[in-house]
Structure prediction request, 228 residues.
Amino acid sequence: MYNPNKYNYQPMQRVEVDGKRRYLTPDGEKLPSVTTILDATKSEESKQALNNWRKRVGVQKAQEITTEAAGRGTRMHKWLENYVKTGETGDPGSNPYSIQSHTMAHSIITQGMINCTEFWGTEVPLYFPKIYAGTTDLCGVHSGAEAIMDHKQTNKPKKREWIEDYFVQLAAYANAHNEVHGTKIRKGVIFMCDPTSLYQEFIIEGNEFDKYTDIWFKRVEQYYMQFV
Prediction:
């Protein structure tokens, strides 16, 4: 069930401050995004792994892969947003790229989102006053528990240990939701699909959610100490 009036989600604009993009919150604050903070505080090991991949495949090829993946993810998100709001994905037409992303969305719906009983919003703007802001894919109830949910396209299947920043991101959005809207969300869900429509699902809750909350606020502290 789509219940967009359960919480009073306020839109946020993107603004530029000293050449850096910020979210303008309803409080009038200009805050860095969750993704900005995570990118700025990546470990040297993570940065080196990305650089090694670019060298291995070549800079031009790496850009082509990145651009194609981004387009596929955007199209998949469109179908999923349609589903949340209307109960239907819509017609992909005859474009092969559109058909591929539509099929990926269908895998996420039938294997993952089928377990959701309530949707509060899609592309939801969230912020933690004075600290950070961002937009999460989905808020609602998953398998009986309030949750923050993200849809991810992936070029190939992922192992849990490869995507820890995704879990940190979920914890960040959940804590922002709790702070502003008075909820007690302690669950995050990743719905993931690759171009072959292989579906994967990753959940954090309980003590694991607390662990990633601690990691997130340490990253926030690191960001403000180094870059602000």
Summary: The longest strand covers residues 116-128.
